[in-house]
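Action item from last week, closing it out:
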Amino acid sequence: MTSQEYLNQLQKYLKKLPQSDYEDAMEYFTEYFADAGPENEQAVIEELGTPKIAAAELMMNLLDKKMDEHTAMEQEEKRNEKKKTTGASVIWIAVLTLFAAPIGAPVLISVIIVLLCVALCVALFDMSIFLAAAVGVAGGIKLLLRGILAVTVSFGGFSLITGMGILLIGISILCIVFGVYLAKWMGWLFVLCARRITRKGGRRS
């Protein structure tokens, strides 16, 4: 196998990466072969392993890098109160890494099914939280309006109904915040699981 044939096969495994990461990866491997020279092509190929193994190793390293970058970015955001994120990119790379992991197909299918079931359950639970929060906000607003209308009849009734409305809205807002963080935590849990699985698969191979 020549270096060009190797790169062509490698390209097939890396083409689903985000465009910038794909270009960086292909540039890295191309320069690696160029620096080694034509006389050392076979030695480089033996060092890298098959294109599939090389792609899997690169994705695992890229996932580690993205997680470190995301963690550093979150820390920087907390200091600067900014809201930029690369969470979606990290999760997508985790998915690609999981598929590229050198583990058996039955194990991979089982892992994917389990993760999908867990993700579906969490998504449904998260949706129910947001739905309950929306109903709570609507109910709280309704109570506030009733409390305002009751002020001319009874100040005690006004205070009670208005207080209940404010409490309901507050609880609903807390539910929304919890739902947002739950989705974020589950995304990172998926990434960590994919990272652990691919690392174990890499060691076994």
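Closing note: The CA atoms of residues 11 and 41 lie 17 Å apart.
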